[in-house]
Write a structure and sequence with these properties.
It contains 5 helices and 8 strands, in the order H-E-H-E-E-E-H-H-E-E-H-E-E. With about 160 residues, the protein is an alpha/beta fold. A hairpin with a 2-residue loop joins strand 2 and strand 3. The longest helix is centred in the N-terminal third of the chain and has 12 residues. The termini are far apart.
């Protein structure tokens, strides 16, 4: 049995996506999608097509960056974009700051003062699959739909390792 499918986090994401016309893109999985590898298995996509959502501290404020599953944050590129080295939010502070537990952090229904950036590593796919508020829920969107649904601040280029 999958726990907490009616969790407040998932309901918050469902309401957010419903208001933007994308709630029908949510999928509940029997197994966890808490890692790129697990998500690819559950979604039935390549690991690269999994849109991983990472949270960083920039100028003592949270920033969300969504990137392809095969991409890695590149310090130089991150610093060029955000004028600081990448520092992930400590795991024990993620839920307090983003509203979502690690494994379920997603680019939807994030507090309005947290900017969401989408890395260009995802633009090579027809569809990407970010989490939907829990480690059991994913959302199937085109990169353009992800930009709209997440109300992203914009696209950035802070990753490496995916170009090959």
């Amino acid at each position: 049995m999958v726990p907490e499918l009616k969790s407040m986090s998932v309901e918050k994401v469902r309401e957010w996506l419903e208001a933007r016309g994308f709630a029908d893109r949510m999928t509940v999985h029997e197994g966890t999608i808490d890692t790129v590898e697990h998500a690819a298995i559950q979604v039935g996509a390549s690991e690269a097509e999994i849109a991983k959502t990472l949270s960083f501290m920039v100028d003592e404020k949270p920033v969300i960056v969504v990137m392809a599953g095969d991409a890695r944050v590149n310090s130089s590129k991150f610093k060029a974009q955000f004028h600081t080295k990448p520092h992930m939010i400590p795991r024990d502070m993620v839920e307090e700051l983003t509203g979502f537990a690690p494994g379920g952090v997603c680019p939807f229904a994030i507090p309005a003062d947290i900017p969401i950036w989408l890395d260009v590593s995802m633009k090579r796919f027809g569809h990407v699959h970010p989490a939907g508020g829990s480690e059991y829920v994913s959302v199937d969107l085109t990169p353009e739909e992800l930009e709209e649904a997440s109300e992203a601040a914009g696209w950035c280029d802070v990753c490496a390792g995916w170009e090959n």
